[in-house]
Write a structure and sequence with these properties.
Strand content: 25-35%
CATH architecture of the largest domain: 2-Layer Sandwich
Structural class: alpha+beta
Order of helices and strands: EEEEEHEEEEHEEHHEEEHHE
Number of strands: 15
Largest sheet: 7 strands, antiparallel
Radius of gyration: 18 Å
CATH superfamily of the largest domain: ATP-grasp fold, B domain
Helix content: 25-40%
Distance between the termini: 33 Å
Length: 253
């Protein structure tokens, strides 16, 4: 497919104008970042793995009636998605204490929470994506109360689906974050799952050993990120045919 006009470039993906109105081509890069992009590397093959894993999860969600922006995978690094207006929030669902929540509340990492907890962060890299409450969201008009009810419902449905899939392959879904998009059918607005769902946006731990199979491997220098992501893809049965071991990461100063 011929390269089209670039719309946006983020830390892990680049968006291009799609072949039809209302569509976008989402390109998965090999770039890895952590700590608000203070730590960076290029990890060969990461984009291929995330493209295939996100396709798998988005397709599954579409199948069970959870709407997403995903239309189809085009090639090893690109997928065709529906254009949408992104709600300026990161929606985080936590099943176990980990990361910033464990530090913020003084809870031992790995502690199972009494129930899934949904948190919201404002999407703003310059501010470090700060945690916000529903009061902030309503006061500043980032989303309506009906939007928030729908977002909560979508987030918990994604959690049920993802937790079940992961449990079936011996992996614990610790937490994950998603982005929500608005699409319009005439005057009617719908909310859908946008962006990606991959080990970049989830914490995934092996149930038996506790081995981390997500971006914490890169954040905490725990080994090969592509080995971890490949392990998830292998267990799901979606590794590319003829796949070979990935190269070591190239650090960016």
């Amino acid at each position: 497919m011929a390269r089209r006009k670039k719309i946006y470039e983020g830390k892990a993906k680049t968006l291009y104008e799609g072949p039809e109105p209302g569509t976008i081509i989402q390109y998965f890069k090999d770039d890895a970042t952590a700590f608000n992009a203070e730590k960076k590397a290029v990890i060969e093959g990461k984009g291929v793995l995330n493209n295939m894993l996100s396709e798998y999860f988005m397709t599954g969600l579409n199948t069970i009636g959870v709407p997403t922006h995903f239309i189809k995978r085009i090639n090893m690094r690109e997928q065709l998605v529906r254009a949408c207006e992104i709600v300026p929030l990161e929606v985080i669902v936590r099943n176990y204490a980990a990361g910033t929540m464990a530090k913020r509340l003084g809870i031992e990492e790995g502690t199972q929470l009494p129930r899934p907890i949904v948190e919201y962060c404002l999407k703003d890299d310059a501010l470090g994506d700060p945690l916000v409450t529903e009061e902030h969201i309503a006061a500043f008009g980032w989303a309506s109360q009906q939007d928030m009810d729908d977002i909560l419902s979508l987030a918990l449905r994604v959690n049920d689906f993802m937790a079940g899939v992961m449990f079936g392959i011996g992996i614990k879904l610790v937490d994950f974050k998603i982005e929500i998009g608005r699409v319009y059918d005439g005057d009617f607005q719908r909310l859908i799952i946008a962006d990606e769902i991959s080990p970049d946006s989830c914490r995934l731990w092996d149930i038996e050993t506790g081995r981390k199979l997500d971006k914490d491997v890169f954040r905490r220098d725990l080994g090969s990120l592509t080995d971890a992501y490949s392990e998830v893809a292998n267990r799901l049965g979606i590794m590319p045919k003829g796949a070979t071991p990935m190269a070591r990461p190239t650090l960016i100063n």
